[in-house]
């Protein structure tokens, strides 16, 4: 009896830490995505065809961020202490890639959204392995966000992101930076 109570307590601590880690890193990710598109829109002609495409993705990122802010409040998760630094870095990434032209702006989208889509998938698997019923609501949210990130990725590919100069180097550099941000956000 005592052992099963201890087991339940350990499971509950593990579950709490799992949800906390996922919500904190996803909040940081959505904040970063919002700032990337804000940076791109700051330097793009808002009435251009690219402006329309990026504005649509940005609107979706704003909704993702609002969703994550609700989850942060609901689960009482403190946001990562690096949030202000990530915000500035993401804005600079968005603005600089947009300054380099349409293909480079779209290459940034492809790089970021591919990594984020993969990251959401890994989290979805973790939550299912833990308990799909307990995490039903969170899973529903993450699956919806994952699907929308993958649509953003496809938009970036469709609009010539992979034709950007030095595409593979750029993609590796952006994804390496994002992985570093993910690593930090999962911990502090
Ligand atoms: Fe997003
Ligand atoms: Fe996205």
Provide the succession of SSEs. HHHHHH
- What small molecules accompany the polymer chains? fe (ii) ion
Distance between the termini: 36 Å
Q: Averaging pLDDT over every residue, what do you get?
A: 92
- The CATH class name reads Mainly Alpha
Q: Which architecture per CATH?
A: Up-down Bundle
What coarse outline follows from CA principal-axis ratios?
A: elongated
What radius of gyration results from the CA coordinates?
18 Å
Structural class: mainly alpha
Number of strands: 0
Report the biggest beta sheet as strand number plus sense, adding barrel if it closes. Answer: none
How many helical stretches? 6
Per the CATH scheme, the topology name is Ferritin
Estimate nothing, just give the exact number of structural domains.
Answer: 1
| Low-confidence region ranges | none
Give the DSSP E fraction (strand runs of 2 or more residues).
Answer: under 5%
Residues in helices, as a percent range: over 70%
